[in-house]
Specification:
By secondary structure, the chain is mainly α. It is built from two helices and two strands. It has a two-stranded antiparallel sheet.
């Protein structure tokens, strides 16, 4: 007798990863429930912009604002990727 196939829900962000930490307090946190595919697509865009800003900062004088913008985009990107890695690790342990 065939069993009913239950669709597994798509993996989503866990919302466990903070970023922009000041005085041991997170100012921001990755939001819970974002589909992983969408989160990674957004991270790709953030890292692309960060790369462009870092290139500008390296080539022009007086562009420390580009370097700081790149730094914060990288910090956000890392938090999203770390959150996705936590979800994927938990899914593998099941």
């Amino acid at each position: 007798m065939p069993t009913a196939h239950t669709a597994t829900p798509p993996l989503t962000t866990a919302g466990l990863t903070p970023f922009s930490i000041h005085n041991d307090h997170a100012l921001f946190r990755v939001n819970r429930g974002v589909p992983i595919r969408e989160a990674l697509a957004h991270v790709s865009d953030l890292l692309h912009l960060s790369k462009l800003l870092a290139e500008d900062a390296a080539m022009e004088r007086g562009t420390d604002r580009y370097a700081w913008a790149s730094h914060y985009l990288q910090e956000m990107s890392k938090a999203v990727i770390d959150d996705v890695v936590k979800v994927l690790g938990a899914a593998q342990r099941r």
